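Hi F.,

I've been meaning to write this up properly since the lab meeting, where we talked about keeping a consistent format for the predictions we share between groups. The idea is simple: the sequence comes first, exactly as it goes in, then the structure tokens exactly as they come out, then a line or two of notes. No screenshots and no reformatting. I'm using this chain as the first example so we have something concrete to point to.
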Amino acid sequence: MKKLIYVLYVMFAILTTITFVVAFHVNDGLVETNYYGKATGYFRAKEAERAMALSFKLPDGLRAGSNVFSIGLFSGGKPFKGAKMTLYVGNVSNTRSDASYELKEIKPGAYSTGIVIPSAGRWFFRVDVSSGTLKTDKSWFEYIT
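Output, unedited:
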């Protein structure tokens, strides 16, 4: 019986150590600024999105280096005009390369800007949208090669 307890203790210690090592290496950190303030209006913003049938067409093909970042914004399947959009790009592993960009409306519902992604790796993207009473955002992670 003592041997079983010793074996269970050793297994527990090994599994606990593995858990801490894995958690340390894959920690995404806190990537939202002002998360408490945003959380208080989150459900109101998401309800407004649903009421407007707001949808995004996310970019694809982003690579390390200079890119043209283009995103589509639609309401009820039609282009959403006149929104003010800001893009935040952040590296998950450090904050040295984080940057914000203003997107310009190039045609109704299509917004674009030039961005620089300095290195390959896992990157966080957030587009903040405001228009009239609507203030919302869209966030996602992407692995850049």
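Notes:
The radius of gyration is 21 Å.
The mean pLDDT is 89.

If this format works for you, I'll send the rest the same way.

G.
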